Amino acid sequence: MNKIKLMIHKNTPFRNCHIGNWIKYNFADIVYTQGIDSRLIWINGVNNILLWEADEKYTSTGICIDDIKCNHKIMMNLVLPNTFPSFYWSRDENKLMKFIEDNKYLSYHERKYNTVFLGSIQNNYQGGFRTTYDWGKYLDVHHLNQGGHNKHKYNQEEYYYKLSESKFGLCLRGGGPKSWREIEYLALGTVLIATEAVDMDNYHNPLIENTHYVRIQNPKEIKEKISEISEEKWTEMSKACMDWYNNNCRFDAAIKILEEIVQNIDLKQQI
Fold first, then answer.
1. Cβ neighbours of residue 105 under 8 Å, at least 6 residues apart?
2. Taken in order 58, 67, 254, 168, is the CA torsion positive or negative?
3. Fold annotation for 93-248
4. Crossing angle of helices 231-248/251-270, nearest 10°?
5. pLDDT grade for 165, boundaries at 50, 70 and 90
6. Looking at the chain, which terminus has fewer C-beta neighbours within 10 angstroms, N or C?
7. Among 63-67, 122-126, 149-153, the least confident range
């Protein structure tokens, strides 16, 4: 399969994400240009295939996806009609992979906590999804950093360790229907507890209920849902979560997902 060509701004902010590793390992042909917005990622030519990373319809630089004219749109977070779902990434792929390399996987009985959520509120829109309930009353480990840019309770490694010490991780919608946290849970084998507004379906390979996650409608269901999952079932789900991350959202898997989507687009154009 031919490598895809990425056209990105020379000052792209995505180097700490997958793109930095794609550049490092020569997984894609990279063309730098100052003629496009720094938040846009183009595949095989400007105005050909757009890889849309933004949580919603607007980038942080104010560009609306509805205003972009191109042949196809591949979506990472928000998925719109007539677009292609793909993958999502963690906050910092290299730090996450290093943590996994340096720390052993914790089994069911080695995990100190049943449930965890560590996150922040960066704006009122995001806060509307994360403060519907007082989630802290229902979780073993909970911290919600108000204001987003205030000092976090844990550094990055401590954060990963808390997630890895928990059997289940609560998923709350952020700026978009997906968040970095879900990917980090999956990578660490922490089974997902998905709330209503969190998107588990719109990936190239969707997550599967009762294989990778359980779904709840309100916090009172948490205790009931996890009590129904035996050690054997949790272990199966935990391993399935890690496999899904490795096959879909790790940087080396994500580029294959993109290549597959682009190849399918090319085949449809030939018909």
1. 164, 189, 242
2. positive
3. Rossmann fold (3.40.50)
4. 60
5. very high
6. C
7. 149-153
Q: How far apart are CA 34 and CA 23, in angstroms?
A: 18
At 252, the pLDDT band (50, 70, 90 cuts) reads very high
In the chain, where the domains are located: 5-88, 93-248
Instruction: Pick the closest to residue 117 from 100, 139, 89, 95 (CA basis).
Output: 139
Q: What is the DSSP string of 134-148?
A: -GGGG-SEEEEEETS
Instruction: Find out whether 118 and 163 touch, Cβ atoms under 8 Å.
Output: yes
The neighbour count for residue 80, using CB atoms within 10 Å, is: 13
Cα torsion at 98, 234, 245, 84 (round to 10°)? -150
Query: If DSSP codes are grouped into helix, strand and coil, which group holds residue 154?
Result: coil
Question: Alpha-carbon distance 91 to 241, whole Å?
Answer: 18
pLDDT higher than threshold 60 for residue 75 = yes
